[in-house]
Design goal:
The complex is a heterodimer. Chain A has helices at 7-15, 20-32, 34-52, 60-88, 227-237, 271-282, and strands at 108-109, 143-144, 152-155, 161-164, 196-206, 209-218, 221-222, 265-266, 269-270, 287-295, 298-308, 311-318, 328-335. By secondary structure, chain A is an alpha+beta fold. In chain A, strands 3, 4, 5, 6, 7, 10, 11, 12 and 13 form a 9-stranded mixed beta sheet that branches. In chain A, strand 10 and strand 11 form a beta hairpin. By secondary structure, chain B is an all-alpha fold. Helices cover 65% and strands 0% of the residues of chain B. Chain B contains 10 helices and no strands. The two termini of chain B are 30 Å apart. The chains are: A alpha+beta, B mainly alpha. Chains A and B meet through helix 1, helix 3 and helix 4 of A and helix 2, helix 3, helix 6, helix 7 and helix 9 of B.
């Protein structure tokens, strides 16, 4: 027996990178050398060990993070077009105005995001900085629609917006998260319209695209008995964001010196989580509105789907509702009136 | 189902959701590459996110001379290599401390893949190899990519992939010699992870076939 082969040489042989003559020499040697055959088997074992490290799917939390970053990128790409479209069509969109901070350009307006819209993927405006979204509390990119009817729409840096309530008296635009501060007295949902502290829009997935669900945060505490009447009251008193209604694309009120932080939460739920939740619950149907309120004393989101055959579907979910988990509390089918 | 290329074309034509769909379609394969290359889930997600944003922006430069998945893989691998380079540049202590703290806090931030003893040792040994060898072994041995595809992903000749794998395996040999194939002695210890597994090791080296 001649000298043994090195592990490197044996590995090359196994990988098929040795010359034919060398390979036949090694093959002949392996047949008669226990030691080299052992090394060869160990090399196979190394590959097997590597293959044995189990595969795990990507954790949902991290998937959501990357998806959110892509959605933001998409929003940015669309707004490169939209910003131009808005300034070009200022005459035809009466209320359209960019916010002084330039943040209007961040908001995707639905009218300008039709599939045929030209893209400007790399035409980032000067000063554009790349979205780096790491936090789950990120607010979803929003599609704005005609929202003007009842309040002052405040455009917020970072893609959120907030419609200050003007149902009664002066608006109550809050800066930063619009979760109620301090203890909050739950009231009868019948008085709902007087008690919407804030409202806005939250994106949700609808047939391969995104729509905006009219989202309010009421102080209502719904109960089994008054869910139906409460929902009717809310539906009646909440201004519609109808995806089918043409109108001003981006509206900005006089309260434009906003230094508000991005709208990242509505009550106890983040906008991004609510996006997932609404997409999950609606699963292909249109959302009429979502009310972040209370049900039987516990924080809950009351989701009203657009009526089909004159029946509203109402789904009450807990705040653990996500894109993959419904956390449903109760459901109700409600004849239209 | 719509092909990857069609989806990518829709994205280039302005469809706001097409790229997200492409990501969701391939995320687990891409994730597998990133988590095995980087070990740490946060780093892997960072690299994957950087890669996807980069692919999102460069989509119009995709010429179709490789499969869309190969193109995506290449971008992910490059992002991982970037991350590895930066990781070596920064003090290693901080990073591993974070990791330990997370683990101590019971955070599920450690990829379950690395939890079992054998997997842990295998991954630790892999980390000590030169980056090129690590990545080649991740693709070929761990994830079972054909050498030809790995070569496309890495942008090198097939022979280069083979020799990187060979050198890597030879280097791992002394570090892993004490470990058996999991199918032989540790199936029971590791519960049904392998029983259910799509990743049962080959009984003998199948490298020649690749």
């Amino acid at each position: 027996m001649i000298g043994h082969f090195s592990a490197d040489e044996l590995a090359s042989y196994r990988a098929g990178t040795t010359s034919a003559t060398r390979a036949s020499k090694i093959a002949a040697h392996l047949a008669g050398c226990v030691r080299c055959a052992g090394v060869d088997a160990s090399l196979a074992n190394v590959s097997a060990l590597l293959a044995s490290v189990p595969a795990q799917p990507m954790p949902d939390r991290l998937t959501d993070r990357v998806s959110a970053a892509l959605a933001a990128e998409s929003t940015h790409r669309a707004t490169a077009v939209t910003a131009a479209a808005v300034s070009a069509s200022a005459g035809t969109a009466p209320a359209a105005a960019a916010s002084p901070t330039g943040q209007a350009g961040r908001l995707r307006t639905a009218g300008a995001t039709s599939q045929g819209a030209p893209t400007a993927a790399d035409a980032a405006p000067p000063g554009y900085h790349r979205w780096r979204l790491r936090m789950p509390e990120w607010s979803s990119p929003l599609v704005l629609r005609s929202l003007a009817a009842t309040g002052v729409l405040v455009l917020l840096a970072g893609g959120g917006f907030l419609l200050a309530s003007a149902h009664h008296g002066q608006g109550t635009a809050t800066s930063g998260p619009i979760a109620a501060r301090g203890p909050r007295k739950a009231v009868n949902p019948g008085d709902h319209s007087a008690n919407v502290s804030a409202s806005g829009g939250v994106r949700y997935r609808y047939k391969g695209t995104y729509l905006v669900a009219n989202t309010i945060q009421s102080r209502a505490n719904y109960t089994v008995g008054d869910l139906a009447s409460g929902v009717r009251a809310v539906v009646a008193s909440t201004p519609a964001i109808s995806p089918a209604t043409p109108g001003p694309q981006v509206t900005s009120g006089t309260n434009s010196n906003s230094t508000a932080a991005p709208l990242v939460r509505i009550g106890g739920i983040s906008a991004s989580q609510l996006t997932g939740c609404l997409s999950n619950i609606a699963s292909g149907r249109a959302v009429l509105l979502a009310d972040v309120a209370h049900y039987l004393g516990k924080p809950a989101v009351i989701i009203v789907l657009k009526p089909v055959s004159a029946v509203f579907d109402v789904i009450v979910v807990g705040l653990a509702c996500t894109a993959t988990k419904a956390d449903a509390i109760t459901r109700l089918s409600l004849p239209k009136s | 189902m719509e092909s990857d290329a069609e989806l990518l074309r829709r994205h280039v034509n302005g469809d706001p959701d097409a790229f997200g769909e492409l990501f969701l379609r391939h995320k687990d394969r891409l994730w597998a590459v990133a988590i095995r290359t980087l070990g740490d889930p946060e780093d892997a997600a960072d690299a994957l996110q950087d890669a996807m944003i980069s692919a999102f922006r460069r989509a119009d430069s995709f010429r179709g001379d490789s499969a869309v998945t190969t193109w995506l893989h290449r971008i992910v691998v490059n992002a991982c290599l970037d991350k590895m380079r930066r990781r070596t540049a920064r003090p290693e202590v901080g990073a591993s401390d974070d990791h330990l703290l997370d683990a101590a806090a019971g955070e599920a931030s450690v990829d379950p893949a690395t939890r079992s003893d054998v997997s842990l040792e295998v991954m630790a040994a892999l980390r000590q190899l030169p980056r090129d060898q690590q990545v080649a072994l991740v693709l070929v041995d761990m994830l079972d990519y054909p050498v030809a595809e790995a070569a496309q992903v890495l942008g090198v000749a097939e022979g280069t992939v083979k020799s990187r794998c060979a050198r890597g395996r030879a280097r791992l040999l002394p570090k892993l010699a004490h470990l058996r194939q999991p199918s032989q002695d540790s199936t029971a210890r590791r519960g049904n992870r392998f029983a259910a597994g799509s990743v049962l090791p080959a009984q003998e080296g199948s490298d020649e076939a690749r």
